[in-house]
Amino acid sequence: MKLQLTRLQRYYLYYTGSFLFFILTLAVLEQHGMPPRWIGYAFLFFTISMYAAIGIASRTSDVSEYYVAGRRVPAFFNGMATGADWMSAASFMGLAGTLYLSGFQGLAYVMGWTGGFVLVALLLAPYLRRFGQYTIPDFLGARYGGNTVRLVAVGAAILASFVYVVAQIYGIGVITSRFVSLQFEIGVFVGLAGILVCSFLGGMRAVTWTQVAQYVILIVAYVTPVAILSYNVTGIPVPQVVYGQVLQEVTQLENRLFDNPAEIEVRRLFRERADLYAEKIMQLPHSLIQEREHLSTEINRLKTTDTQMKDIVALERKRRDLPHDPDQARVSWEKAMFLAVDRSKVPVHHAEAFPGETPEEQLSQRINFLTLIFCLTVGTAALPHLLTRYYTTPTVSQARDSVFWSLLFILLLYMTAPAYAVFAKYEVLSHLAEIPIAKLPGWVAAWSKLGLVSIEDINRDGILQLAELSLNPDVIVLATPEIAGMPYVVSGLVAAGALAAALSTADGLLLTITSTLSHDVYYRIFRPDASTQFRLVISKSFLLIVAVLAATVAAQKPGTILSMVAWAFSIAGAAFFPALVLGIFWRRATRIGAITGMLVGTTLTLYYILRLEFDNFIWLGSIGWNIEPWFQVQSTSAGVFGILAGFVTIIAVSLLTEPYQAAEKFLMAIRGNRNGSDTSNYWQKTERLTISLLVFWLIVTFVMNWYARELNAIVIFGFPLGFYMGAQGILLIYLGTIWFYNRRMRHLDARFGIENE
Fold first, then answer.
1. pLDDT digit string (tens) for 596-611?
2. CA Rg, the chain, in Å?
3. What whole-number distance in Å separates Cα of residue 733 and Cα of residue 342?
4. Which of 115, 90, 56, 230 lies closest to 171, judged by CA?
5. What angle do CA 731, 237, 15 make, to 5 degrees?
6. Tell me: the pLDDT tens digits for 608-630?
7. Which residue pairs, CB below 8 angstroms and at least 24 apart, start in 26-32?
8. Is the C-alpha dihedral spanning 535, 528, 383, 671 positive or negative?
9. For 58, which of 371, 399, 594, 627 is 20 to 30 Å away at the CA?
10. Nearest-CA neighbor of 560 among 443, 452, 425?
11. Is the bond leading into 441 cis (omega within 30 degrees of zero)?
């Protein structure tokens, strides 16, 4: 039977072929002497030009098209756009890097970010699409009534989305500064221009079709280098299948290197450095005065000898860089002390689950692992820019199918990321460790200039030990082609993919922020009579303002990409998830309960993040308000407290207050009763199916992972079973769960006559 392609499918097929031809052309030109910088500029110009062309072609002045792409996006393409929207700079750049550094512990991000789509499919996407408006604050305002809950939702959406978009623009700055040799701050604003050309003229319509194009680029860019690595190492270019045997080789290399006498000596020296900093901190302010006097005395002594000027200049620079006062010294020296402590620790084996020298340490790791999965899962199901995508499909059934396609396209990257980390670690352990520092490859110096790689020969033997190498997790994916000695065109391709990932997510986030401001605040509250044209003018004005503000904050390099994203997930989960889920599944939830729960959850999450993470900033550290982690939970999992507090608060306050009178009609509509017929049986069956699959999801996600350390004793095809389930097995179960739910719901829809919604 002849395969029939739609016009849309043909367009993107031609686009994909053009992109692959472009890559091959650059590869040939590189062989004929094309400079690497020109290759970088070619990728930057080609990709942004394609995005701009799609954005301009998709321009619109229709409100429905601008906010929700006219609700005409097929499930397959919406899934692809959602995949690009979802796979941000954190996924593309940060995920494999975190897995490289953390091993098994990093799989919490893989399972959390994919497991959230199970909750989206079961609890939210169908009901949001059946509601059929534009934003998440719209939904909460209609469910609970009044503008107060809408304004609280707007504030939470802006806060979570802004933190998230700053991380994307920061990633753009890293990419452009390395591959086209722009200054970091300039690269940030160049990336900003790329964001605006995608979204300014066409809103969600332009962003959707641009994101489909960006998905093609980012997935090709992500899979290509690790497929080449896999072929070079194993002879098979399917890394997801064969990296188990490479993981076994990595484990053998770790066993040899970790116990090397030189490595042990280096770790001892870093421990001594940490102790020295601790002693200096204890003796402040006298230690700072003594340090400055000692350097001044040494400089004066060297000036009376034949010492080379460069040595004197180095000491003068060291004196000049000393903290100006005891508060700054405490902050600076504590940071240096913690870095030294980290380097002094015995490295963790890549596949080891919940590492620790004592049962207490192992329990702490286990708790943080599971709480991080919980926060990322719930945060995924509560991010406004993700949920808004399910407003864009033609029907409720297609919204459900769209979640399935979203996760399928996302798994192509997420099941590759653990393989990426293993192959990159194999290259570093086998070809970089224990070589003379004078013979280090050029990529080390190139990335060192950006502060993402650092080398310190602390034992002065001229040989690189693992503890002397520090890699920022954001550099692993970008540098892997250089680490493996691939042609520069592969590095340029990876940079283009990372740029596509950051731009696609930034577009969705900025559109979410500006939509909430222009639609939920300006139109819904202040100017309900505003014309369509003026509403779009206001939206585009907000887009420019927020974009410039986010770029300005990103230029300050506020943190690693993954940590900023984890905070955004905690904030979103605490603010929205309890109010959304209880608003759909519990009739008794009230307006005051929702407002109170959202405020309590968000405030508690922010409080915990600030108290743990930002005490080392001078403007906060001088207060001395640091706290110990509650139940050993780190700031990346801060949302666990806010989410639970949100649920408890909404339930408690709702039981004490009167429900919104119009809520009953609203609930009947989103649960499938639009024509006044009795659909209570349909809803009961839907509830039973939802609860059954939620219990199954809880067992697979949390019970199975609780025993991951024990499961690792079983090895299948080179994979420790606990590691394999976290890296691939559980992800496939998630996809199967959504497929089964969609299949059952199609049967229910047909049975009760609501399949054509």
1. 999 999 999 988 888 7
2. 27
3. 36
4. 90
5. 80
6. 888 777 655 444 444 455 677 78
7. 26/489, 26/492, 27/487, 27/489, 30/487, 30/488, 30/489, 31/487
8. negative
9. 399
10. 452
11. no
